Amino acid sequence: MKTVLIIIIAFLAVSCSNKNTKIQSLDWMSGKWTADVNEGTMTETWTLKNDSTWVGESIFMKGEQLLFTEKISIILRSDKLVCLISVSDQNDGKEVVFVESERTDSKVVFENKAHDYPQKISYGKNGEDKMHAFVSGNMEGQFHKIDFDLKRVK
């Protein structure tokens, strides 16, 4: 009986550790980031909510005018990271789900091939206080890619 209990405790410890490791592998995303884009400025903020969830918010501004906002969560689901995005005034307020397709110590890529645009979202660490992100995919039969060179501000 003791042996079974020890095995169960060990299994649970490894399972929890694995979850934390996947979420913590994105620690480099933490903080407030900004990028100049053609339409204005994008600010993105990432915070570790708990041991299984990152929460983010993107704000797109043109001067003093708010263009749109995105609410983002990265969670662990079925041993994969999943990115949930809701954009103001799009998709009837429903989240769009993107599933991890690639992850390293300095990069994470999410995909949803069924989504209209984008189908791919990528974040990559580019130095200590820089991050390169992009969204890409087909839109109206044409491939489009939008790059964001972000700098940490907090």
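the 2nd protein, sequnce then structure:
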Amino acid sequence: MKNTRKYRWFYWAFMLGMMIIIFVLSHQPGTVSTKISDHVASTLQVESQEKYFYKAVSAQPLFAGLSLRKYAHLVLYGGLGLSTFLVTKDGRLSGKKKIWLAMAICFVYSCTDELHQYFIPGRGAKFIDIIIDAIGYSVVIGLGWLVLWIKRRKQ
């Protein structure tokens, strides 16, 4: 426990950093966001020879019917899930309460992010994005809990 306490400031900075990154990306108008997504998609198209990558347009499916933007939701909220898990794992709450707290923080942030996007020109609030965000952070928080559980069982 002592070893992880000295990293607590880093965990908080990581969580706040993820929130800032998500906010900045969400705050871009639709045209700017589309240009960035298309650039990333075209880079993937050039560098990848896999059959799963289609035309370099960010709104088209890459794999499993999800677009590049939806994968960005998974990755960014996975990072937020990891950071909130690290922040909450050493608290005074019981194991399950720590997990639910981390999930609640991510859920509230996801909802407020979609509400924020509603007011950005060319963007909108989409319920499916909240679901995709939840998949991203739930998987990472669940894996974090599983790793800790396995470590404790071995001790």
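The longest strand covers residues 61-63. Residues 127-154 form the longest helix (28 residues).
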